[in-house]
Amino acid sequence: MTPVILAAVAAAVVVLVFGRFDRTRALKRWGFVLSGRAEKATEALRSRLAEDTEIASHAYGLALTRKASLSYDEAVRLLAIAADTIEEAAEDRHRRLRALSVYARMAEAIVPVPPVAPAQFKLAETRSLAMIARWLHELLNSYQERFRFRLAVIGFGVRLVVRSIRGSRIRASIEPSEAEPYQTFGDSLHDFRALDAEQVESFRQLMRSAAATDRASLPEGLRTLGGDEAGGEAEEKSEK
Amino acid sequence: MHRALAFLGLGLAGAAVLGIVGRRKTTACVSFSVLMAASVGFTAFFLLFPNRYTPAAFLAKQGIYDSLLFGMSVELSFRVFSAFRGIADSARKVLGGLVLVSTSAVFLLTPQAAYSEFWRYQPSVTTAGVWCLTCVSLLIVWYQIPVAAFTKAIVMAYVPYQVVFVILVDIIRRQGWGVVPEVNLANAAAYDVMVAYLAYAAWRKD
């Protein structure tokens, strides 16, 4: 009976995983990896990520002003808008991190990346996460593993920040006159921005690594990929 | 009925072989092309000379198929991953380990190949081969290797068919040799579906 179960599992894996594999999408990904537009693509990503946090920061700033003028209902409403913006942005960050992880597998080699620095964070949980991650980072064997671990840490950090934002939003709605929820919200926003910066840095290092891929060693179909900028842009959009 | 299905399978497999050669797809996986050609050859031979279809001939045929199944995994992994220097090492480790473990298990754990004991060892051998192919396909997805459509079709057709084969052999183990005619019928039907898909994939322009 065991071989039957094992064979059935294998067939299910092949049909579900390999069956959904799209060659065109894979080619697009390779085109993006080999495009070698590290600086330009990094700047584009940086400004795109900044758009989300700017909206949230603006709403948070207005919430603080309303709180100072004792308009607590309005302050809580603005805080909710900022929280929703961050929660939506967090989903986008997770998607991007997953895509980066895929690209990291495709790169021939990854340049050494430093661990996520704990000192830049204000929340205790994200700082603790970064400290533990820094220690684990040294235990990993290859640069590929370290890079993917770095992405996992950033992803986990985003989850912690979103949890903190949700908590402070709820506390602010219960006790709108208290300073603590607003302070924690501000710290969470700061950490979210710091994690964005770490994500941009990971992306930049990945693009640098990919640019160093030896095209001559690749199969014929991939050697000519990545030459056109439109292909890379399109892939960036589809990954988004 | 079984004979009709066997003739249909022969025709479809022949069409698949012609498509593979005609469309120059032999290089997608030479072992598979050989497997298909061998399948056509054996089927035609046994249909022409049914009295030659002895247990020894069946075991010889199955041994060749099994060897080619493992050969397909090794060849596909070599063809697909060798150009990617960053990936080739990991792929070699995973597949090398798997082939080593599965081959050792097949040699050490299965009884001596005899037709009367066929149902005892064949499912393990086929399952090991199927898992080798599954690992190759998982590595392709993991590393996003843009393999040719026909390479994908080979795995997508061959693995599910092999599972049907394993299930049918297990039915013989459970029910006894009396169910062989029904099992042969089901196997021929599954084989025909597989070769029909492969013939379509072989003739399709990629």
Describe the structure.
The complex is a heterodimer of chains A (240) and B (206). Chain A is mainly alpha-helical and 240 residues long. Helices cover 79% and strands 0% of the residues of chain A. Chain A contains nine helices and no strands. In chain A, helix 3 runs antiparallel to helix 4 (72-106), helix 3 (38-68) runs antiparallel to helix 7 (180-211) and helix 5 (124-139) packs antiparallel against helix 6. In chain B, helix 5 (118-143) packs antiparallel against helix 6. Chain B is globular and about 50 Å long. Classes of the chains: A mainly alpha (240), B mainly alpha (206).
Give the SSE layout.
The complex is a heterodimer of chains A (240) and B (206).
Chain A: H1 2-18, H2 23-33, H3 38-68, H4 72-106, H5 124-139, H6 143-174, H7 180-211, H8 220-223, H9 229-239
Chain B: H1 2-22, H2 30-48, H3 55-81, H4 85-109, H5 118-143, H6 149-175, H7 180-203
Helix pairs in contact in B: 1-2, 1-7, 2-3, 3-4, 3-5, 4-5, 5-6, 6-7
Order of helices and strands of chain B: HHHHHHH
Helix content class of chain A: over 70%
Shape of chain B: globular
The helix count of chain B comes to: 7
**Share of β-strand residues of chain A:** under 5%
Q: Which two protein chains have the largest interface (Cβ within 8 Å of the partner's Cβ), and how many residues from each?
A: A-B, 33 and 35 residues
Helix/strand class of chain B: mainly alpha
Number of strands of chain B: 0
Number of DSSP strand runs of chain A: 0
